[in-house]
Design brief:
The chain contains six helices and six strands, in the order βαββαβαααββα. By secondary structure, it is α+β, with helices and mostly antiparallel strands. Among the domains are: 89 residues, Multidrug efflux transporter AcrB pore domain (Alpha-Beta Plaits); 52 residues, no CATH class. The relative contact order is 0.11.
């Protein structure tokens, strides 16, 4: 009864999940071109116990488990090898595949949960405060991880009249390519003054909704 005890004893979780998404693919396509290739590569993982997969049209989940007698350092190395080995066959996986994504953090423990609110503040402002609070928490002794939950990514919705597009001979793909091309980062060269080389930077990327509204589109001839 007088032995020292830790509040949260260390526990090594020996399971990793690999997930892949391929929109539009059939179950057979997922099996032949994604799951089978990943599973065969995962068979090379050290201290492997078993690999199981669940496949449906357009997505697949592969579960890998390490043997129970594997120590924590060996488990961490095995999970590193999983990422490395799947990365080695990335060029063999089909185009349009999203992932593979890896998750081996099931053993994390969230001790406290805090919410942040502020009347009169916009969501981007609250998000900035949350990021600052997270950064301060990470400097607190004993805190290993601080995660923001419920983050909403910013999105811009563009409404375009189909009749206007048709009259101009444009498609939605043309609009998408124009926005993508506007944000491309291309080398603009440099100027050699004899004493130093000055890099030329070309601005004009899309940074706010008004930039999209003012974007010029090239009409088809």
């Amino acid at each position: 009864m007088r032995m020292g005890q830790k509040e949260d004893p260390d526990f090594t979780f020996r399971v990793m999940v690999v997930q892949a998404v391929w929109p539009g693919a059939s179950i057979q396509d997922m099996e032949d071109q994604v799951v089978n290739k990943i599973e065969r590569k995962l068979q090379e993982t050290p201290h492997l116990d078993f690999v199981r997969s669940y496949t449906r049209a357009g997505s697949a989940i592969i579960t890998l488990q390490v043997k129970g007698d594997t120590n924590a350092a060996q488990v961490a190395d095995a999970f590193y090898q999983v990422r490395k080995k799947v990365g080695d066959i990335a060029n063999e996986l089909p185009q349009g595949l999203l992932g593979p994504y890896f998750n081996d953090e099931f053993g994390d423990t969230f001790v406290t949960l805090h919410s942040l609110s502020g009347e009169g503040y916009s969501y981007p402002e609250l998000k900035t405060f949350a990021i600052q609070a997270r950064d301060m928490l990470l400097t607190t002794p004993g805190v290993e991880k601080a995660v923001i939950i419920g983050d909403q990514p910013e999105k811009i919705y563009i409404d375009i009249s189909s009749a206007v597009l048709a009259s101009c001979g444009l498609t939605l793909a043309d609009v998408q390519n124009a926005i993508k091309g506007q944000n491309n980062v291309d080398p603009a060269g440099s100027v050699d003054t004899g004493m130093r080389s000055v890099r030329i930077s070309v601005e004009g990327g899309v940074a706010k909704p008004a930039d999209i509204r003012e974007l010029r589109l090239r009409l088809r001839q």
